[in-house]
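From the pipeline queue, job 12 of 40. The input is one protein chain; the requested action is below.

Action: predict structure.
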Amino acid sequence: RRWVNLYEHRRVNFNERYRSCSLQSRKRFFHLFCSGKLPPGLTIEDIKSGVVQSKPRNRLLAQVFKELGIIEKYGSGIKRVIEDFKAHGLKEPSFEEKQGGFYVVVSSRTNAVGADREIQGTTQKTQDTTQKTQGTTQETKDTTQKTQGTTQETKDTTQKTQSTTQKTQGTTQETKDTTQETKGTTQKTQDTTQKTKDTTQKTQDTTQSTTQKTKETTREIETEQKIIVLLKQDPRLSRKKLASSIGISENGIKYHLDKLKKRGKLLHVGPDKGGYWKITG
């Protein structure tokens, strides 16, 4: 349908170098070009709306297509093309006037809805990982509470020992020796109590550190997945546009792009300005 539309509206001028419509096929893209810009007063937004009056340059050719049933309704071709692409879950074609003609890029990639679903799937996996980490954190907290319970029992034992020591004072040397041994046991118990406290503190510190690292790792995974999804949709996106879409700084985008390149996930093809990103992993 779009090919017929190109021929119907193309400008015929035998003094021009490019006098016909052309089709170029690239990986996941088709580039269609036809000489001749839109008629004066007609914009790309107008033809996408499908409510404008058609102004075919080749009226005789348009009449032939109409009689053959190829043209269904004048002025509605572009709108119906867009609707067909959306109905099949494909990205909307892009339309542009340049180099003295009308330029159309058709992509076989899925539209933004598919990208959103992919992001949601990645987010769900990240949430599952976070829940597992939280479960591990809870187990650590339970262990800490048990340790604290043991510490309390040790303190109670220490207090009882001290009470026994006080009662045995003033007795025979034998009792004093026993008291001394009890004091030694008390000291060992206190040392054990201190070690238990130290272990508890280390466990809490480790839990907090692990939780923080998990959150940071989760955010990085989500950011990298968003970058890959956006570059699948438009490999020529700049760092500025990526930063605006994701909501982080351009330096942050550069950091994640460098990480993805080092891991073999991305490859930049062409010059810094005018090149594009190729997803390799």
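Job complete. The first helix runs from residue 2 to 9.
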